[in-house]
Amino acid sequence: MSHAATCRMIVAMMLSASALAQNGCNHQMVGANQAPPAAPVAVAPQQQAIAQQTQQTQQYQQRTAALDKDNQELASLLAQSRQQIQLLEDQMRATQQQLRDTTDRLAGVQSDNDQLRSRTTALTASMQTRGQGEIRANNSLLRNLTISSMPGVTVRQDGDVVRIELPGDQLFNFGTSQFKLGAEALVRALATDLSQNYPQQMIGIEGHTDGSPPATPQFPTDQHLAVAQATALFDMLTRSAGLPAKQLFVVGHGGSQPIVSNATEAGRARNRRIDVVVYPETVRR
Hints:
This protein has 285 residues and is of the alpha+beta class. The protein has helices at residues 3-33, 45-128, 168-171, 183-197, 222-239, 265-271; strands at 154-158, 161-167, 201-208, 248-254, 273-282.
């Protein structure tokens, strides 16, 4: 083999070796660039405990929020209950006050009834002494009385008695037993006539109404109003005018004895009256 051929063989072998070496390097680089398959990640027990605690904490927070909402609703209900209790207490106090007022009014009516009963008993006792000479009949009672000239006042003979009719609207404020301004002059004239002309006769004071229900709760019925008005006149005649109480007695007829029909206002006004009745029987002073 010539020297040139030998050289060419050596160069070919060197090129072949270089190619093989380069090819091996490429295989190694490709293998190095490919990632190995991922292995399953293992979670540590500590991380699991933290995750569970976080979940429990969230649950506790949710429960706390729910309890706060419930507490707010309960607080609102409690406030409403307290308001209702306060309202009921106020209503109870008002009812108790009304009950006390009603009891006081009933006590007043009972007192008036007791006075009326006492006076009726006294009159009955006086009538029973007729046989003892203390009560004497006298049928000549109708006389000229000063009060008969006053407006609205009527004096007439009614059987064996003299009936002096006094307009209730001139004496009392409507629906009450309180005297009106100016009523004193009428009562004073009445007292003068009774004292001068009938110093010993039994005298009845009869209250009459128009039968309408009283305008105030002080008098449950028109009967109570009639008794109260007659009693008020009795008190003024005995206390202010000085007539002896044993000579007078009180009767309340209410609306049971109207003089005229109550169909008109004028008729009702006429029926609202006080009749002062002079009896023929006399009593000793």
